[in-house]
Specification:
Layout: H1 44-57, H2 61-67, H3 81-94, E1 98-102, H4 117-133, H5 136-150, E2 152-160, E3 165-171, E4 176-179, E5 190-197, E6 208-218, E7 235-236, E8 244-245, E9 247-257, E10 276-277, E11 289-290, E12 298-302, H6 321-342, E13 346-351, E14 375-383, H7 387-408, H8 412-415, H9 426-432, H10 434-464, E15 478-482, H11 490-502, H12 508-517, H13 525-546, H14 554-568
Antiparallel strand pairs: 1-15, 2-3, 2-12, 4-5, 5-6, 6-9, 7-8, 9-10, 9-11, 13-14
Helix pairs in contact: 1-2, 3-5, 6-7, 11-12, 11-14, 12-13, 13-14
């Protein structure tokens, strides 16, 4: 391979696979869909990488390699190790639950709430109701599994006038084609979602390509853009009451017959004269429909923090893909060796072979239970023992699994292959899980801003739709709160919380949040704080009814009773 052929990019870890050379080649059996005329040439490697990764997830990597010309790959044994690694990493990423949290909402029930706390709590409650109606947990799992497996995922929002709320949908990242104006810009001004629609002979429909386009452009009084004869107009959006904007987002949803497309008419240059525009339920044609918002309601989630100048994430399988190939090859060899171990190869000397009466030829002997062979005086039987080779192959499988666990940073403890007797203490287990903690921390950091952006869009779509309860004003920062990804020592956390709160170095709100993060069944931190205070006040009233406080400091006594409530777990 010459230096001009060596490609180093976000998918260089796939260069070792010969099948990647088939991406976009006419007549390719491995990637026939990439030979479509509308697929942009610079997207071929990304789309091919997605298909290779998906084949590993579905135990079809051998079939894909065979389609690329490797006939021996059909004998490949794939036992679900790739899918197990993806699902394990996904489980640790998601934790036991996810919640929408608005900054400042936890202070709404305090005796002296901070400014804006009541508004934050109200927005948090509305966002959580939206999340329940839109099955946010389900959508997040859909999108995140694609991100962990493929490196990227996409979610799109749309305002539904009938439901009076934004709807959320997860898309395959292979449908996502952002148009970057600047390599350093994280927010493209134009995004295409495009995919093939197969022919339907029964309905008389030919093969088509559907393209949904979101594009930011100047607002025009007559519906056109500035430069096309339209006069630019301004608009004040409810989330920025004091600012006039001349930018809006246009939506176009159209289809093209594949037979009508010629070479050179790629996704961003499809002939609009041959387009068939879709129509909304109310009869509106989706041809540059003004969405009345100044942002593209599409969120791209990367599994990892992209390198400088890149926009795409990296799959959890990326760095261990060759190890998974080695594991599959070893499993295939183990299967062959186990066949000769269970049914060994036997050599006979001086045996009398039975004769086929019809042909007069000696019959082949079969190794089976109850078989009797007659041997002469000098006869001998030798069996080929392949059990030592089988044991070596099994040991190699264990070695490869350890390498995959270590290099993927999911760790043997995270995969559940670590022998519990090898862990001398909880501290040692914590050290063993250190790489997994760093991996999950990095993955959650890569998503932190994207989910904040998603909830900002949800709030603004509610404001643009003039939904009940959503008034004009600044959008409040909201985030997706993740549960702990590994078990915690709840007893130790409780003891720490009780001592720290009793010593006055922690507030009651912080103490309850620590218990919540440790996995205690607290559904709402602010409500739990209120219940603890109410319980402390009831205890104080009961004691005052019996006798006056000896210390004369009611506030200090109430604090001590709240500490007692925390330590005894009376509210749980």
């Amino acid at each position: 391979m010459g230096l001009r052929q060596l490609v180093i990019d976000a998918w260089s870890w796939l260069n070792y696979k010969p099948v990647m050379a088939d991406a976009g080649r006419p007549g390719s059996r491995a990637f026939p869909e990439l030979a479509k005329t509308w697929v942009p040439p610079h997207e071929l490697r990304r789309l091919a990488a997605y298909k290779v990764l998906a084949s590993y997830d579905s135990n079809q990597a051998g079939q894909l390699a065979a389609a690329g010309g490797d006939a021996g790959a059909l004998e490949r044994r794939e036992l679900g190790d790739a899918a197990n690694l993806v699902d394990t990493a996904l489980g640790y990423l998601l934790g036991s639950e996810q919640k929408v949290a608005v900054e400042g909402a936890e202070h709404a029930d305090e005796a002296t709430p901070t400014p804006g706390a009541a508004e934050a709590a109200a927005v948090q409650e509305r966002l959580r109701k939206w999340a329940d109606k839109e099955l946010l947990t389900f959508r997040v799992q859909q999108a995140e599994r694609a991100a962990v497996l493929l490196g990227d995922s996409v979610m799109a929002l749309a305002w539904n006038p009938q439901k009076q709320r934004p709807t959320l949908r997860a898309y395959d990242p292979g449908f996502f084609f952002p148009q970057w104006d600047d390599e350093d810009d994280d927010f493209p001004t134009q995004v295409h979602l495009a995919w093939d629609l197969p022919a339907d002979d029964d309905a008389g429909l030919k093969a088509r390509v559907r393209r949904v386009t979101y594009e930011l452009g100047p607002i025009s009084e007559d519906g056109g853009e500035d430069g096309d004869g339209g006069s630019v107009a301004g608009r004040t959006y409810p989330w920025e009451p004091g600012r006039v904007s001349n930018v809006t987002c246009y939506l176009t949803d159209a289809e093209w017959l594949l037979d009508d497309l010629k070479n050179g008419e790629a996704l961003d240059r499809l002939p609009m004269g041959k387009a068939s525009f879709r129509v909304r339920a109310d009869g509106t044609e989706l041809n540059r429909l003004d969405l009345m918002i100044d942002f593209v309601p599409v969120v791209h989630i990367a599994n990892t923090i992209p390198d400088g100048g890149e926009h795409w994430g990296r799959s959890v399988l990326a760095r261990v893909l060759q190890a998974l190939d080695e594991l599959a090859a070893t499993d295939s060899d183990s299967s062959a060796a186990s066949a000769t171990t269970g049914t060994p190869i036997i050599g006979l000397a001086g045996a009398r072979l039975p004769v086929d009466r019809a042909t007069g030829r000696p019959q082949e002997l079969e190794v089976k239970a109850g078989a009797v062979w007659q041997l002469g005086e000098t006869g001998r039987m030798d069996a080929l023992d392949t059990s030592p080779q089988l044991a070596e192959l099994r040991a190699r499988v264990d070695h490869l699994l350890e390498r995959i666990a270590a290099n993927s940073r999911v760790t043997a403890a995270g995969l559940g292959t670590l022998d519990a007797t090898e862990v001398p203490s909880g501290y040692a287990l914590k050290l063993a899980l250190g790489p997994l903690d760093a991996l999950i921390g990095m993955m959650r950091l890569a998503r932190e801003h994207k989910y904040r952006l998603l909830f900002k869009m949800v709030q603004r779509l509610y404001q643009a739709g003039r939904a009940e309860g959503w008034t004009a004003g600044e959008t409040l920062p909201a985030r997706l709160s993740w549960a702990p990804h590994t078990p915690t020592d709840r007893g130790a956390v409780l003891e720490e919380v009780v001592k720290a709160y009793g010593a006055g170095v922690l507030s009651l709100e912080t103490a309850v949040m620590m218990l919540l993060e440790a996995g205690y069944p607290i559904k709402d931190a602010s409500q739990e704080v209120e219940r603890i205070r109410a319980k402390a006040e009831q205890d104080a009233a009961a004691r005052r009814g019996a006798q006056a406080p000896e210390d004369g400091n009611g506030q200090q006594a109430d604090g001590e009773r709240a500490t007692q409530v925390l330590s005894t777990g009376a509210t749980h």
